[in-house]
Amino acid sequence: MLTRLAGFLYAHRRAVLYVAVVGAVIAAVFGSSVAQYLSPYGANDPATQSVQATNRFQAATHRQIDPGVIALVNVGNIHSATAEQRVNQVAAELQSGPDVAATATYYDTHNPAMISNDGRSTYVLAYFTALSDSRLKNDAQQIENRFAGAKDVRLGGQQIANAQVNTQVSHDLERSELLAFPFVFLLSLLFFRSLVAALLPPLLGGLAIVCTFLALRIVGTFVDLSVFALNLTTGLGLGLAIDYSLFMVSRYREESAKSGFGPEAIRRTLQTAGRTIVFSSLTVAAAVASLTIFPQRFLYSMGIAGALVALLAASLALTVLPALLAVLGPRVNSLAPKRLARAADRDARPAQNGAWYRLAHLIQRRPALIAITSASFLIALGIPFFTQVKFTSVDATVLPTSVSARQVNDAINTQFPPNRGAPLDVVVGAPTTAPAVRALEQRLTRLPNVSAVAPARPAGPSLSVIAVAPARPPLSDASQRLVHAVRALRVPFYLGVAGETAAYVDLEHSLAVHLPAVLAAVVATTLIILFLMTGSVVLPIKAVIMNALGLSAMFGILVLIFQDGNLEGLLSYHSLGALDATQPILLFAVGFGLATDYGVFLLSRIKEARDAGANDSDAVAIGLERSGRVVTAAAVLFAVALGAFSTSEIVFIKELGLGAVLAVLIDASIIRALLVPSLMELLGPLNWWAPRPLRRLHERIGLREGGPPALAAGS
What is the rounded CA–CA span in Å between residue 638 and residue 242? Predict the structure, then answer.
């Protein structure tokens, strides 16, 4: 298949490039505005009690259960007529806002908890009608614009926070792109050895990103997607474009040194590096696509975006890039300083005496010692994750302190009676006048960890809601125990608990329920794809184990940095004392796919050398020599592309960026340079073992392109 594709691309190389240019323009025009069609974070599972209780309330009242906007008003003396007039004016302005169903002030409710401790501030609550998150995001932005010039009013609340997070993500995305692309280009010049070749990764990456943006806009018309998918699209698209460009260009130079810059070089490049890219993209796409098993918008959006960008980057690398190489021919080495030109010539003729070859043989002298030492080091790094990790959820605290939603959140928590801004919303299926509801209020008051219980409010003819303020902060262990205690109460009517803490309890439960299926999907697809590539059952199992070691080390480092607060000054963040609950899952899928990506490239070169006649030890050394520089360069470039996200003002985006960087660098260094050669030396021929039925199956369906070239001496 790849052989026929190579012939077609070489024969129609210019036409392919014309089509690519037209497609890029169309994708850029229609895909550049994709952020406007995407929704906020989204961590709710529709099947959980907190969501169902919220839906029941919204169906009865036609408004949201929690305030979408909290307007903090500095009024001086709260009991003055001027203060009341100003607060009522703010409430009227909010009430006239788009899709605002109701407002509440201290002067309406006479709730003393709405007065600050110094008596100089109060807040107005605005409740939106029950609408989609994307529409509410636009409504919140319009309200923000209305109060932009009001110095005595600061806006917060869930929908304002969502809108400000969206804005911050867009700014962070632009900054990370501006930061990453110049560094990627400079490093590409060093690793690709010429200015012309160095332009290929940004070109391929940009094309993959805009095509994915267009695809996400189309998918977004049918599926509710999170705006955070754009961050993964940009980082993963650029990173995979770098990897695939390196694989293709390095192999093209190698084949051109043997047969010249003609159709044969393109054919052999696609048969070898192209085949590797096919397997690589399938493993990355399968690993990330496993996130679609989760019902949370944030996670399944990442799964869709990650799978799309992986497959599109590979498709472009297998079509547009070979066509471009065919047009360029020897000019791919143009505009190169003499030193880089000589290095490119050496790279194109990989010898069996290079640094990576010598390193492999050095490792093979003490394989058991190096394998045990490397594995022990990774296990030690992972211990903090397994012994002390804590999780939290996304709220206004992820925003920088300069943003109004964060300021309002901090003020509500510090300047007003504690924990009233995030109560447990107890939805009960009975009217407020029912004696059983009054009895329930008394029972709630007597529960441990309760600070205050507000009188039941009507939510329809046969539905009420009771706000229970916890004694401890939201998401704390005590508040989570309170959620379970309320849900355990036996009453003669429906009782459901919603609110921030209840939603987090349900999030953790939902993640735990769906995680085994995700793990099984990732492991199963990796085993199948690597078996189809290698014909071995040992190598896929070993790859899964090594990936697990690398990822556990990465998670342990994240705990030390983001949970324990190390490097706060260097990375410019404030520790939340925990990791966002969804980040380890996302990083697992992305990191597992990327680790397998590099493993596929190394194994493909080892298998190629072995199929060409090298013994097991020499095949490992030859494979490491011919892939070591490329994998290292790809990892460094990928780290720069994704590391730019560590400059984000959103702390869990920092976690994502730094976590991906750590996963890539750990895999490309400790695992690929030390663990793989040492374990392959220890196992010897056993690396390639498979039961006889599976060997026959691989001979029948294993994907291969022609036969391997003979292993020339000194090559």
Answer: 7
Where are the strands (E) in 440-587, listed by range? 450-453, 457-458, 464-470, 495-498, 579-580
Please give the average per-residue pLDDT across 337-357, as a whole number. 72
Q: What is the pTM of this model?
A: 0.84
Mean of pLDDT over the chain = 87
Q: What is the pLDDT of residue 132?
A: 63
Per-residue 3-state assignment (H helix, E strand, C coil) for 612-626: CCCCHHHHHHHHHHH
Distance spanning both ends of the chain, measured CA to CA: 27
Angle subtended at Cα 411 by Cα 421 and Cα 407, rounded to the nearest 5 degrees: 110
474, exposed or middle or buried, with CB in 10 Å at 0-12, 13-18, 19+? buried
Amino acid at 208: A
Q: What is the rounded CA–CA span in Å between residue 268 and residue 338?
A: 27
Query: Which pairs from 59-62 meet CB under 8 Å and 24+ separation?
Result: 59/130, 60/459, 60/460, 60/463, 61/101, 61/459, 61/460, 62/101, 62/129, 62/130
Q: Is 636 helix (H, G, I), strand (E, B) or coil?
A: helix
For residue 611, give the nearest of 536, 538, 710, 704 by alpha carbon.
710
Among residues 451, 433, 453, 434, the alpha carbon closest in space to that of 443 is found at 453
Residue type at position 15: A
CA separation, residue 53 to residues 63, 65, 424, 469, 510 (Å): 13, 9, 11, 18, 16
DSSP 149: T
SS3 151: coil
Convert the pLDDT of each residue in 42-58 to its tens digit. 778 999 999 999 999 99
Give rounded-to-5 percent helix, strand, coil for the chain: 70, 10, 25
